[in-house]
Amino acid sequence: MRAYSFTQPRSVAEAVAHGGAGTAFLAGGTTLVDLMKLNVMTPDQVVDINRLPLHGITLDRDGLHIAALERMSDVAADRTVRRDYPMIAQALQLSASGQLRNMASIGGNLLQRTRCGYFRDVTTACNKREPGSGCSALAGINRIHAILGTSDDCVATHPSDLAVALVALETVVHLATAQGARTVPLDAFYTLPGTTPHVENVLRPGELITGISVPRSPWAAHSSI
Q1: How far is it, in rounded angstroms, from Cα 152 to Cα 199?
Q2: Which of 38, 172, 183, 188 is most buried, with most CB under 10 Å away?
């Protein structure tokens, strides 16, 4: 693991002020820490956001609001989520293991990196990890890789079960930067690989997910995976 600086801000404004190219935000750490150990991700600065006031699960006339630092297990067990948005609870319960669900945050879940073995092996070619190096999966072991939404540069899949359910429910993502806040529909948040598979979403350098909102829907309470 390479040397990096480490900060623990206490406000969203302070956190995004530290953001930028070469910065990684740390929540549950279930993806970031593993990839740093493998030298797949090598940030110059890690910003621990666990002290930020990004907690809470609320329901109002506009829909369900989940703050970014809520843990997956807590959201899956929430009575409001289970009653009014059962598909979200089911997607979370099917994700990872109990230990990981207790650690991983909702924001972090949406930003997971692919489980492609070639992406995680720095001795192999991977356009997602090192743009322009090639894609070892194209002619390699790729039975669990993507069929749709691929390109000649990448056939990796996104690992989030939750993201699929949230897209179906027309979820929006709330983002914060030093320049202000913005909201992006989740189905427009992710990008197809094309010729730039290393660009996985529309996050700008230093931008932070602060929460998600799921609108009310007459069928959401009857949704299921």
Answers
A1: 15
A2: 172
- Contact status, residue 126 vs residue 119, Cβ threshold 8 Å: yes
Helix (H) or strand (E) segment spanning residue 56: none
**Residue 132, C-beta contacts closer than 8 angstroms, at least 6 positions apart:** none
Cβ–Cβ under 8 Å, residues 164 and 174: no
Structure tokens that stand for 30 in this block = 């279930």
HSE, CB side, 13 Å, CA atoms: give it for residue 193: 23
> Which residues fall within 8 angstroms of residue 27, CB to CB, at 6 or more apart?
49, 50, 68, 69, 104, 105, 107, 108
Q: Count of CB atoms within 10 A of residue 78's CB? A: 20
Contact (Cβ atoms closer than 8 angstroms) between residue 35 and residue 26: no
172: three-class secondary structure by DSSP: strand
User: pLDDT tens digits, residue range 144-182?
Assistant: 999 999 999 999 999 999 999 999 999 999 999 988 999
pLDDT in tens, 115-142: 999 999 999 999 999 999 999 999 999 9
- 216 sits in which H/E element: none
DSSP string, 123-149: TS-BTTTSTTS-BGGGGSS-TTS-SSS
